[in-house]
Every structure is written in structure tokens, then in C-alpha cells.
Amino acid sequence: MKLYAMQGNPRANKIIVAAALANVQLEFVPLQYQQLESPEFLQKNPLGKIPVLETPEGFLTESNAILQYVVRGTPLVGTTEFHKAKVQQWLDFAATELEPQFIQLALPVFGHFPIAPAQALRASETLNWLLRVLDEYLKASNFLVGDALTVADINLNSYLQGIFTFIHGEEERKPYANLVRYHNHVTSLPQWLEHFGRTRYAKKPFPQLQFVEQPHPQQQKKEQKPKEEKPKKEQQPKQGPTKKEEKPKKEKEQDDEEAPPKAKNPFEHLPPTTFDIDAWKRQFLASKDLKAEFQWLWANLDQAGWSAWEVLYQKSENEGKLLIVTKNNVRGFLQRTDPHFRKYCFAVHGVYGDEPDLHQRGAWLWRGTEIPEYLKDHPTFEFVKFVKLDVNDEAQRARFEEYWLNQEEDESKVQGLTARFVEYFR
User: Fold this and answer.
1) What's the pLDDT at 211?
2) Exposure string for 273-283, b = 16+ CB within 10 A, e = fewer
3) Is residue 420 a contact partner of residue 358, using CB atoms and an 8 Å limit?
4) Spatial contact of 176 and 136, defined as CB atoms under 8 Å apart
């Protein structure tokens, strides 16, 4: 049997994991996105979607149908008729209940479409309700069906990995201790780790989703307003217009307190700097001689107020396989970096290498001599390695410059790796 899909696709991965657990021989045929529209592939699936399974009897589509077919006759699909029905129940639960909420919340994080706050709020509330149901169900069990692993567990955990990586941070996961325990149990299987990799638990939700758990502002006002009611003005002694205006002002101050406090500038404690990053950005981007710009930079950089860094994303076993996915990851990394940080830094960041071993990295110049809070607050901070470069060392300066001077995609080399996708953060 042959399985056609993109490398790293979760719907395909769950099938590959199940086949490995059942010792079923399955040949994986990796595809590129452009192949899905080819006449050859459309003969396999006229919808142009993956995964597709080629069998001696013909082609099979829809991941859950393939999942059950590949391991048919094994305990992974259930050992009794009732257990088989329960497996189907949980497959349907994930597809019809869980997946719509996951898509509504995760795709904006991936940059596929802008977030719709009202829809995201409803999706978040529904998702949390579904997770509470699962958490209660798994209170006394390690599996969804009976006392053994089934394809229902493999399928559900492919969604949970996405939820815990991209949607729920530490605080959001706290109510689901049983579910996290269950997820850790299933995802510790060697077959899972080989194809999905370990779950990289987010410390907090990605910025696009951080609003969805907050109480609605109108609800807050309704709860607080009765406490703030004052006696009617007619009962008070007659006063001038200035007094009359004080009350609305006071109420406005109360309302203002409901909004989150304005973030402090994390660089305000630093001494004044002689280096103007905005001026150098304009100078660099307008220049036809970038090498000369770096000679100017090293001669004029205020080293007490600025520092140069190499930023290296530490990919998991299952990342860096496909260029289109890795490019999206880089875009997402830059989009999720606090936009206020742009005022204090200049960077070139991108994808380097060849499929299936692509790397996300870049060269950054920023205010201060340590890793700033703007980056420490990034959702992927724990998976990024920050290397501070000594700009007085010729070799390390050259390492930094290499990213900036070699930006021609599919042609230039940086540390021996071909530049595949390059973007500025400015």
C-alpha cells in the first residue's frame, strides 16, 4: 500500500503511526502542493486533497477511513463490536466537534486569515467545554476505549498536540490535568515521537488569541456600575460647573482602570545612545554598497547601547521538512514578535538549507546588550537559541554580515546553507 501526502502532514502522520504500531507495511510517497492539481493526482482523488491511500483494490481517501482500513483486524480498531463502535464515536467526535473549533483558532495563528474576535470567542468557549468533557472522561483511564490504545487515541492526540502547542498556554491547560496526563502518555510512544515529535507546550497563547479568555468589557461594566452609584445630584448643594464635571471624570477613571495597564518601555533604564537605528535602516536600505554600510556600522555603533545576535530556532524532529511550511513558520515568528520592538531593532531572518533539512535563523541588531523582554515574551522563546556576537571579533562580524550580504533566494549561501526565504524585521 502507498500513502500519498505532504511530508509532516498530521492527517498522514496519524496513519503512519498506526501502521507502525500494527507492523503494517506502508510506503509513504511525499508530495509537493503543486502536484495536487496535476492530472495524475486528480485521477487518484478528484478533490485534489490528501492523504490518499493506494491499495490493490483502488484508491481510498479521507484520513479516518484510511486510518481504520490500514490497521483493520488489529486491536487498534477495537476488539469487540461495541469497542469498534466506540472507536468510531470518538473519531466522529474529533472530526465534528473538536476540529471546527481548532481550525477557527489555529489558522489565524498560522496566518491563513485574520482573526474574527466574536467567532474566536465562541470557538474558545466551545473548545474549553469539549476539553472539560474529555478531562472528566479520562479521570480514571489512560485510553478512550477500554484499556488499550486504539486509533481513536492516535487521532485525538493529533488535535491535542496542536491545541497545546498553538492555542493553550500554561494557565489555560491547568484545568485539564487528566487530559495533559493522557496526552503525555500517548505521545511518549516511540512511533509517535518518530513522526510527530514531542509536544512543545506553549507558555502562553499566541498574541492573536490572548484576548479570547478575557471577560467581555460590557459585562465588567455591568458588574461594577451598581457599586459606583452616587446620590442624585439634586440632593447635593448647588455647586459650580467644575464640580459637576468631576463625577463623569471619576467614572471615566474607573472605566480606564478596566483596561490593561500600558506596558513600560523595557529599554527606559538604559543610558542614552549615540546610535540612531532608524537613520541606519534608511541608510542601509537605500545603499547600493551594503559592505560599505557595515564598515560604517562597526565604526559608529554604540556598543554600550546596542548588540548583535544570531537567532536560531531549535526545530523538532518533525520540523523543517517542507519549504512552504517552514516559510510560514518564519512569517509567524516575525508576526508574533511584539511590533513595538521594531523601533529598537533591525534584523534579517529566514529559511536556509534544503528539504527535508531546513533551518530558521537570522541576524539581529537590537537595543541593549541582553535578550530584551520583547523576545522573552515571545510564545516560542524557549525553542530559540540566542547567540551574542562580539562585534570586535572579525570572524564574528563576518558571521553577522553574511546574513545581510547574501539575500538572493535559491542562490546565496549563508554558513554553507542556501538562502530559501529572507525577510527583514524593521
Assistant:
1) 54
2) eebebeebbee
3) yes
4) no
